[in-house]
Amino acid sequence: MDKYSLLGLSRDCTEEEIRNAYKRLALKCHPDKPTGDRETFSSLEQAYKTLSEPSARASYDNELANASKLMHPVWQAVNLDDMELLDDSYRMDCRCGASLQAGKQSLVNLPALIECNDCSTMVRVDPAA
Ligand SMILES: [Zn+2]
């Protein structure tokens, strides 16, 4: 479970919401209480520590975004030579009709993923056949 779900919050919640949710839940599962649960309490503490610190929260958000990218189903795998070579980038048509483009530099290490800005489809680019 991610730290936001643990606190019952959405990812765009405010700092105040984080603080309030943490206080409420931490009170409920504090190990000194009959309803206490040490494990949950320490997860809550860790979640709060990360989310209440802006730079830690930003890097955690980044981590979450990357994780969901990896889980995102790849729509299509193409070879580098299936793509049209432009001056300093490669391009192809996305299934949504938008143009998928990636700089040559970003395709040095293959396979690489290109994400469509319009429909968030992922295409995997494999080395030329
Ligand atoms: Zn698209």
Provide an overview of this structure:
InterPro entries: DnaJ_domain, DPH_MB_dom, DPH_MB_sf, J_dom_sf. Residues 2-64 form the J domain. GO terms for molecular function: ATPase activator activity; ferrous iron binding. Keywords: Iron, Metal-binding, Zinc. This is Diphthamide biosynthesis protein 4. With 129 residues, the protein is of the alpha+beta class. It has 2 domains: 3-69, Helix Hairpins, CATH 1.10.287; 72-126, DPH Zinc finger (Microbial ribonuclease fold, Roll), CATH 3.10.660.10. 39% of the residues lie in helices and 21% in strands. The chain has 4 helices and 6 strands, in the order H-H-H-H-E-E-E-E-E-E. The chain has helices at residues 3-6, 15-28, 38-51, 54-71; strands spanning 74-79, 84-85, 89-93, 99-103, 112-115, 122-126. The strands form 2 sheets. A 3-stranded mixed β-sheet has the order 1-6-5, with no helix packed on it. Strands 2-3-4 form a 3-stranded antiparallel β-sheet, with no helix packed on it. Strand 3 (89-93) and strand 4 (99-103) form a beta hairpin. The two termini are 40 Å apart. The model has no long low-confidence stretch (mean pLDDT 91). The structure holds zinc ion. Residues 94, 96, 98, 116, 118-119, 121 line the site of zinc ion (ZN). Zinc ion binds next to loops.
